[in-house]
Amino acid sequence: MRRLSSRQLRARLLLAFLLLTGVCALAFGYYLAEARRLVGANYTAMVTDVVRAQEDPTRLRLSLDNLLARPSPGHVAQANDLLWRIPLRIEGIRRQLERSDLPPADYRPLLEELAWVETRLPRLSEAVSAAEEEGLAEPDREALLELGMAVEESLAWAYSELNELLHQASADQRRLMVRLTLAVAILLLLVLAAAGAVMVMLLKLHRQREAMREQSRTDELTGLFNRRRLLEAAAQELERRARHGTPLSLLLLDLDHFKRVNDAFGHPLGDRVLIGFAGLLEDQTRRVDLVVRLGGEEFAILVPDSGLAAARRLAERIRRAVGEMPLPGAAAGRRLTVSIGVAEALEGDDFDRLYGRADRCLYRAKEGGRDRVEA
What we know:
This protein has 375 residues and is of the alpha+beta class. It contains eleven helices and five strands, in the order H-H-H-H-H-H-H-E-H-H-E-E-H-E-H-E. The protein has two domains: 1-216, Four Helix Bundle (Hemerythrin (Met), subunit A); 227-374, Alpha-Beta Plaits (2-Layer Sandwich), CATH 3.30.70. The protein has helices spanning 6-38, 41-53, 55-69, 73-99, 104-133, 138-216, 227-244, 258-265, 267-284, 308-323, 351-367; strands at residues 248-255, 290-295, 298-304, 338-344, 373-374. A five-stranded mixed beta sheet has the order 2-3-1-4-5, sandwiched between helices.
């Protein structure tokens, strides 16, 4: 499986975070829309019924006034229809209250008042019927008027108090919805913050792992790659050569008599020479070439897409550049030389075979007098 770079991982984590943010935003929007639609819905329906019921006391007064002023079949029918409708409306409101979330203690006195009204309605209905059949004497008229006013006042008070109670309950529910919405929003923000923190932690862990992996493949002194990275890259390039037939070459380099530099001027100055030599190799090679420090004064260069002739030209260019490289400090008057062995990968080669041929060439360069290239 191909490793993800830190940039690729960061892009994927950012995309995942944006998707999670979008899902949370959609979920919160849906919740908010549904909450606004449902909050107070039951109370709104009850308020509508109570508002309609509040018209009953006024209609009852007008109906009884008309009946007492001029008893006629039309006025009697109007009063009877209203007296038939009032108990039905009371029963409907009672059922809605019992199904609601309102505390029974809040609406029980109002239902008791409406229940008292229901006990008076039959008497009121009998008096209305008597007015149609026989007419009413003055005492009966006063009794009808007194009973009607009592029913009207009880209805008006109960419905007014009930309307206030429902509006208060609806307002309380809306305030609760606002608090719940705020809590849900905070919860979603905490979820996003936690997800973001986890993603940042994953990215940091990935970077630390990549840094450790890079350190394990890098020479601490020169900053060049080390033998481990050479083995990885060589395996990849040999596989590519086997598939596509592209040439591949390897250079092995050894600084001549480098031990004399360390013995004469000390290891600190020797380290500076190695660092300068590493920089020279990077300047002389392409970006696709892999420059490696194998250890001590031994180096290697893996040269993809280059046959033996091109690799030998590179080696000669490096040899001449090393001869002209100024040395630091007390070694400034000395001249540095390098021996180089060059080999090209052949059909069926693995790294050990390629390395072995390059190493034999390097040995010949050393035996041949040093400061030379053998291929």
